[in-house]
Structure formats: structure tokens, C-alpha cells
Amino acid sequence: MPYRSNLKMADIRKAVKDARARRIAAERVGSEA
Amino acid sequence: MFTVMDCGFAPRCALEAADSAQVRIEKIFAIIEDSRLGVHDISRTGLDRVTRLPRFNMPLELGMFLAARRFGDALQQTKSCIVFDSDSFRYRKFISDIAGQDVYSHGNRPAVLIDRLRDWLAHHGEGVLPGGAAINARFEVFRADLPAMRESLKLNQSAPIFKDLVYLIRTWLKDNAA
Hints:
Chain A has one helix and no strands. Chain A is rod-shaped and about 45 Å long. With 33 residues, chain A is mainly α. In chain A, 15% of the residues are buried. Chain B has a single domain, classed as Rossmann fold (3-Layer(aba) Sandwich), CATH 3.40.50. Helices cover 46% and strands 8% of the residues of chain B. At the A-B interface, helix 1 of A face helix 5 and helix 6 of B.
């Protein structure tokens, strides 16, 4: 990319992983209900 | 932006220029010069709520792209672009000179835009692209994840910065590979 984010990549990776984990947990609860 | 990246292309945008010391129009010229393909959505060419004047940045940038293709060197003349509007033929009422270009209606529906943009990119890229339905399904999941990601990154909920969004989408696509 010819430009850089102002955010730290480690923070972006953590945000993406946390959102995914939260979604999967919510789907699991939904399927068990 | 999501579709462009899911199809393996790197998005460039006038919004890159927001925090640059370079004169904005020069930055946009540079982005257009660097870009073989152009995606122009003129559906937001409405009246500004405060000034009641039309917002013309998108049509201006489309004109710059067409001029680069028309007057540029051999490489610039290989450029190709697609134009989207909300309704078929609406553009004839405010920018009729672009008749003859590829202008597609998306009806303000993201799924339609994704599908048409994907098909157009498939003609201009290499390799097999995911189908429009698959991209749209991933986009919906990304949209659902976005509030949590913004909260985690302490991003302003109403005004994501283009560059941050690009890196967020890229990381999300890697983490949620098809």
C-alpha cells in the first residue's frame, strides 16, 4: 500500500480476532438456544 | 472498498489526501495517474444539507480520470473505469456528457453494487475471483464485526479514516479467509 495506517498493526490484529471470537461465541449461544 | 480488496485489488481514494501536506488536487492527480482502473460512484451528487449546493467532487474526479485516459500517454490510455449511480439514466439529468460510458445503477443496494463491481473487476484482473454472493456474504459478516472492532480500536463511530479502514479490511480478510 502506498499509505500507512495510523493504528498499530498489533492492535488491528487483536481487534479483528476479538470481534471474530465474539461473533463465534454469539453464534454458538444462538444455535444452542 | 471491501469488494475491491476481496477481489485482490488495492484501493486508492481521494480520502488518502486528507492528512497530506500536498495540495489536494495534485494528490488526486497522482492517485489517478497511478491507477489503471477507476470506480466512480456519482450517486452521492446531492445537495449539501447546509449550503444547498451540489457536491461535485465525485463528478470532478471522474472527469479527471477520463481526461487522463484521453490525453495521457500510451499507458494512461489503457485505463478503464466504471461509473455507478443510484438509478438508471439519472445521470442524464445532471451529467449528460458522460453518455456512452459504462454507467450502472446500484439502486442504493450494496448487494447489487458488489455483484456488478465484482463482474467488472473479473474482466480486468487475473485469476478467478470469488462470486458476488460470496463477497456479499463476507461483507455482511464484516459489517456485523465492525462496531466491535471500532470499539476495540477506539475509533470514531461516525467517521472512519480511509487508511485505517483499508488496513482493518485487509487484516479481517486474512483472518476470515474464504
